[in-house]
Amino acid sequence: MTGGVKINEIMASGERKPAVFLDRDGVLTEEKSYIDSVEKLCIFPYAAECIRKIQEKGYYAIVVTNQSGVARGLFSEDELRRMNAYLIRETKIDAVYYCPHHPAGAVEKYKMECDCRKPKTGMFQAACRDFAINLAKSYMVGDRAGDILAGQNLGIRTVLLESGYGTGRLEADVVPGHIFTDLRDLLEIL
Ligand SMILES: [Mg+2]
Ligand SMILES: [Zn+2]
């Protein structure tokens, strides 16, 4: 049965697609410290079109976001899920992975040293279980040092955007693969 061989070859060559992993605040939405309700989530006017183009170029568009406001008791995980649903509806991103934890949190349930808070890579690993992702061709796009370090910890290419915290406010010395003004510039390298 040569057909079986062909199928195996296709599977080996991979139906895997690369991903653009995206931070949320400062990348897809305006950075405003803690956004504690869906009403405060201001999606950049260009975000939906950028996501469409990223997907047209053959990439998954997957959000990986630290939301320690849940651990700090500033908003509930349910409210965060409402924000995620709104973001998916408005931008058509493929998925949102979030970390609600913080080691110094006020809410016992979320107070922990977890494996998902960037610069750790737990959210990316969860995405890789849910999607067939070609990491070798993937990118991490963010506006803070932790985003870049997370991408580097995972071993993927990194892009720092100036549309959030700005490169003058980086919490650590990082050397991203690219520095761009905002998400629209990313499309030039995909
Ligand atoms: Mg951010
Ligand atoms: Zn976490």
CATH T-level fold name: Rossmann fold
What is the helical fraction, as a range of percent? 25-40%
User: How many β-strand stretches?
Assistant: 6
The gross shape turns out to be: globular
**Number of separate domains:** 1
Can you identify the CATH superfamily? Answer: HAD superfamily/HAD-like
Under CATH at level 1, the class stands as Alpha Beta
Radius of gyration: 17 Å
Estimate the mean pLDDT confidence: 92
Q: Which structural class should the secondary elements be placed in?
A: alpha/beta
Low-pLDDT parts are 1-5, 7-13
Query: What's the number of helices?
Result: 6
Q: Between the first and last Cα atoms, what is the distance in angstroms?
A: 39 Å
Describe the structure.
With 190 residues, this protein is of the alpha/beta class. The N terminus is likely disordered. The chain is globular, with a radius of gyration of 17 Å. 39% of the residues are buried. 32% of the residues lie in helices and 15% in strands. The protein has a single domain, classed as HAD superfamily/HAD-like (Rossmann fold, 3-Layer(aba) Sandwich). The N and C termini lie far apart (39 Å). Helix 5 links the parallel strand 4 and strand 5. The chain has a 6-stranded parallel β-sheet. The protein contains 6 helices and 6 strands; from the N terminus they run αβαβαβαβαββα. The longest helix has 15 residues. It binds magnesium ion (MG) and zinc ion (ZN). The site of magnesium ion (MG) has 9 residues, from loops.
